[in-house]
Amino acid sequence: MGFFDGIRGGRGAEFDSGSAATNAIELTKRHHTVSLTKQDAATGHLRVNLSWRMRTSDLGGEQRESLLRHPFKALKPLPVQGHTQSMVNVDLDLGCLYELADGTKGVVQPLGNFLGELNEAPYIRLSGDDRFGSGSGETIYINLDHREEIKRLLVFVYIYDQTPAFDRTHAIVTLYPSNGPRIEVSLDERHPQARSCAVVLIENVKGELVVKREVRFVYGFQAELDRLYGWGMQWGRGFKSKV
């Protein structure tokens, strides 16, 4: 179960994703910040993408024990298995809490169909909801041509269906600026009971746009992220459509 606040959903829009980058900056615990302004990437559309896949190394307990006892079985193709309790079809969602310079606060996320707006406040737009972890994943576009009107943004990921399974997925959030290398943040820490994760905080610090790695896993949903980062919004239960 997720949560959302009552913000008006946005209209459809078309996007450009900026030039392709050939290299990447990986944000880690040791090197956790990067300035978009200093790399001349604080204009145009910042594309934030979430993609994930199930961890192929996570074999079931009995299967793992069998391979340890009979290592030559690893040479044989594994039988096709249907989805069971041990093979969860995880639905990761990408969202963004925002606070504008005029004090306006809100969220862009699939729950409640709060897709945002790109060319007017909040200058953030979610492209859609990927429920199967496809190659393209989910993408949020941020219009940095309005950077002076943005105070801070918290990009987060959450599991919709109440099944805590971050430890069964390999997820990565990638930021594609309009200029310079892409910025990657891996969510590969093992937190089996977590349902949400604050990934990166983008702040306007005296006119400089700074991206900071957070990767803070929590056991609750948006309301708990709100509490941790002091957004101060009211939250209620939200559901996805079945379409």
Biggest beta-sheet profile: 7 strands, mixed
Distance between the ends: 17 Å
Could you say which overall geometry the principal axes of the C-alpha atoms support? Answer: globular
Number-wise, the strands total 15
Structural class assignment: mainly beta
Strand order of the largest sheet: 2-12-11-4-9-8-7
Helix segment tally: 2
Arithmetic mean pLDDT: 78
Summarize the amount of helix as a percent range. Answer: under 10%
Low-confidence stretches: 1-21, 58-68, 71-87
Order of helices and strands: EEEEHEEEEEEEEEEHE
Strand percentage: 35-45%
Rg, Cα atoms, Å: 19 Å
Secondary structure elements and their pairing?
Layout: E1 2-4, E2 24-26, E3 33-35, E4 45-54, H1 61-69, E5 92-100, E6 105-108, E7 116-117, E8 124-126, E9 138-143, E10 150-159, E11 169-176, E12 182-187, E13 196-205, E14 208-218, H2 222-229, E15 236-238
Parallel strand pairs: 2-12
Antiparallel strand pairs: 1-15, 3-14, 4-9, 4-11, 5-6, 5-10, 7-8, 8-9, 10-13, 11-12, 13-14
